[in-house]
Structures are given as structure tokens and as C-alpha cells.
């Protein structure tokens, strides 16, 4: 079970088809009255948080198939207090397929407390620009980041440049800003390597990954812009005054 944080979120392709199997321990799963009297199954599940949020316990899924990986994933969820978002939350209450062949193999899952932080969750339309069979999944979280921690992690170098934050409403602009010529050149290069397997090595794979990254980052920069942060000027002038000590800093934070 997770111990270091009450907020755990897992996101990606698990190659697991879980149907509508329950991802939590339920007292109804155990018929032994003696065992039920000895064990409080609430200690092994945080499903009550879903009840408080009005989120259904039972998941829906348009994919009713269960495979070996699916059973293993369900066992992992039960043993670690991890709950699946797919099929029970926001616009995906029907359990939409996550791949073009109508299967559900991509999941967003996490501790019950993460449900408090979810603003939006959606299985989006398939696009062969981004994947061979997988549909994109959109997840928006409402997270409170401590200012001091943010400065420590981002202000490592002065005058550092960052691409602006992703905005879902600009996803169409992001697609249109992708350089089609560079994409076509990259595809031609991949086909060339595909036809001559002797050219496939670590360097060629790294080169392809680097080019894909560059294409996506260039589009993101055109769409969302660039932000420059100068950490040298981020502190107030009075921070170096003798009277601005630790107690004063804490008082300012409380104010």
C-alpha cells in the first residue's frame, strides 16, 4: 500500500483489459461471517471517499473482455488502494474504448484522495497523427504548489526560458502549427530505415526520438509562447534587510 503520499496517480497504457471487475475489496466478496466479524474491510479500501463524492462504485466499460494482465491490474489496485477513473468519472461514465479497436487498455487510476483534485477527465477522439491505435486521454488536476518549492525547482538558472502552459482550448492550433514538411521528412527517414533493417541501431532510434520531440516542442512554442524567468530579480528588495528575519517571513506568509 502507498505510504509516502495520500495523492497517487498512475496514467498510461497497461495492456490490461479489466472489463467491469471491481477494483476494490468489498465485504460482499467474503461469505465467511466469522472472518467478516474479525476484519474491518474499510481498512483495506477507501471506497467510502467515492461514496462521499457521489461517484459510483461500479465501473462501466464498453469493453467486456478480461485478460491476464487485466486480472493482475485489478489485483494490484485492490492490494494498494488504487481506484480506476475510467468508466465512473465525468464524461467517461460509460467506459469509452481507449484504442481504435474498441478495447480499454489505457487507464488513469490513483488513490481515492486524487478524485478531490480532478477538474476534467476525458477519452478523446482517435488521431493517427499521435498514435497507431491509442486514443489521447485528457486529465486536468487542481494542484496547490508551494511557492518556495516552485522557485527551488524552476529557478535553477537565471533567465531560463519555458514554453507556456498547455491550454486544451488551443489543441487545434497546436495541431495546425506542427511543421508538416518536417513530419514528412521524418516519416521518409523511418520508412528508409524500415526497408533496411541494418540501419536500425541505438543512434538512429535516438535521432528519431529527438526529431519527434523537436517537432512537438516547436509547435508548442508557436502555440503557447515562451516565458522568461529571471530568478535574480524574483526577490523583494527588503528580503536582505536585517529586520526581515525568519519570524518576519513567517508572519508575512500568515498575513
TrEMBL record:
InterPro entries per the UniProt record, alphabetical: Endo/exonu/phosph_ase_sf
Domain of life: Eukaryota
Protein name (database record): Endonuclease/exonuclease/phosphatase domain-containing protein
Organism field: Mytilus galloprovincialis
Amino acid at each position: 500500500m502507498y505510504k509516502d503520499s495520500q495523492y497517487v496517480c498512475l496514467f498510461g497504457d497497461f495492456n490490461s483489459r479489466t472489463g467491469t471487475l471491481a477494483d476494490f475489496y468489498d465485504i460482499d466478496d467474503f461469505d465467511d461471517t466469522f472472518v467478516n466479524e474479525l476484519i474491518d474491510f474499510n481498512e483495506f479500501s477507501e471506497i467510502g471517499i467515492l461514496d462521499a463524492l457521489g461517484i459510483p462504485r461500479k465501473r462501466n466499460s464498453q469493453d467486456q473482455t478480461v485478460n491476464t494482465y487485466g486480472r493482475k491490474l485489478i489485483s494490484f489496485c485492490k492490494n494498494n488502494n488504487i481506484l480506476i477513473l475510467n468508466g465512473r468519472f465525468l464524461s467517461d461514465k460509460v467506459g469509452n474504448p481507449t484504442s481504435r479497436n474498441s478495447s480499454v487498455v489505457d487507464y488513469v487510476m490513483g488513490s481515492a484522495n486524487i478524485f478531490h483534485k480532478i477538474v476534467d477527465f476525458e477519452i478523446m477522439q482517435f488521431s493517427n497523427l499521435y498514435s497507431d491505435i491509442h486514443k489521447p486521454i485528457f486529465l486536468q488536476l487542481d494542484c496547490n504548489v508551494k511557492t518556495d518549492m516552485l522557485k527551488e525547482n524552476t529557478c535553477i538558472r537565471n533567465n531560463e526560458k519555458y514554453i507556456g502552459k498547455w491550454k486544451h482550448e488551443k489543441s487545434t492550433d497546436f495541431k495546425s502549427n506542427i511543421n508538416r514538411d518536417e513530419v514528412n521528412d521524418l516519416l521518409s527517414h523511418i520508412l528508409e530505415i524500415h526497408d533496411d533493417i541494418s540501419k536500425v541501431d541505438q543512434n538512429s532510434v535516438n535521432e528519431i526520438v529527438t526529431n519527434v520531440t523537436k517537432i512537438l516542442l516547436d509547435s508548442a512554442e508557436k502555440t503557447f509562447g515562451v516565458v522568461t524567468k529571471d530568478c535574480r530579480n524574483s526577490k523583494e528588495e527588503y528580503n536582505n534587510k536585517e529586520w526581515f528575519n525568519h519570524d518576519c517571513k513567517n508572519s508575512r506568509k500568515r498575513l
